[in-house]
Amino acid sequence: MTSPTLADGLGAIAGLYDVLLCDVWGVIHNGRESFPEACRALARFKAEHGPVVLISNAPRPNGPVIEQLAGLGVGPEAFSEVVTSGDATRTLLAERAPGPFWKLGPDRDWPLYEGLDLDFVDLDQARYIACTGPFDDEVETPEDYRERFQAAAARGVEMICANPDIVVQRGDKLIYCGGALAQLYEALDGKVAMAGKPHKAIYDLALTRAAERLERPVDRSRVLCIGDGLGTDIRGANAQALDVLFVANGIHGQETVRDGRLDMSVARRLLDVEGLTATWALADLVW
Question: Do the bridges between strand 223-227 and strand 243-247 make them parallel or antiparallel, or are there none, so unpaired?
């Protein structure tokens, strides 16, 4: 397998690419604060090279995500477009409307469903589960749902999962996401459909938006994906045969980064264990 090359910074490789598809959580913010160096790097690429499409597994349409970014200090100079798992998932939900659906997730994710004319019912009456994550991701784990999931899976209820992430970092804490619930549901022989990373639909949407910005077709050999999640960002880029920059000091920071320096041997081992490859690697996204 191809081992990643340690990059001196995004600026050292930027000339090889016309488009960036960049992860959000773990690369440019941690849920509580943005990373100024990462934002400056994206802004410089956008100004000097081409469009930056933020590609997020947030289970909401891009409007609320753009508002969240602004609240964290990530301004429009750092990105051209935002494409979310929520944007791609709305297509899956519309195909199954009106349901009925059991809504699983916090109230902040209600914008996902606006305008789709879905019927929401209790789980024992539902044909589908619309999952954005636990009801309370500060305290709940997938095991809190095992009993309910067993009964639903046995009835053949399909889960539509709007966020394939297993965990994300919120401040200094890892919290469970929709992907962890979907993983358990599949382990119980439940059927799951997803559109976010690492699945194809969200990349198709992101590349379409990039082409609109370029005003020409995208040369996929000149697209760079950036992310910290092995199972989502790196696996998704590999599946699409796109170059990828592994930002190690996100989900895997405790394993891979010592005193601010990336241990490449650990990074390579993590990738090898998962059967994944990366083109480049950095501790943090900087220019």
Answer: parallel
Distance, first Cα to last Cα, the chain: 27
CA-wise closest residue to 40 among 250, 238, 286, 265: 286
Q: Of 241, 277, 85, 251, whose CA–CA distance to 162 is shortest? A: 85
Are 107 and 237 in the same domain?
no
Residue 23 tokens, joined:
């992860």
∠ at Cα 72 (200, 249), nearest 5°? 60
CB atoms within 10 A of CB 269: 13
**Domain count within the chain:** 2
Which element (helix H / strand E) includes 269? helix 264-274
Q: What pTM did the predictor assign?
A: 0.83
Render pLDDT for 241-260 as a digit per residue (tens, 0 to 9): 999 999 988 777 677 777 77
Residue 131 lies in a domain: yes
287 inside domain:
no
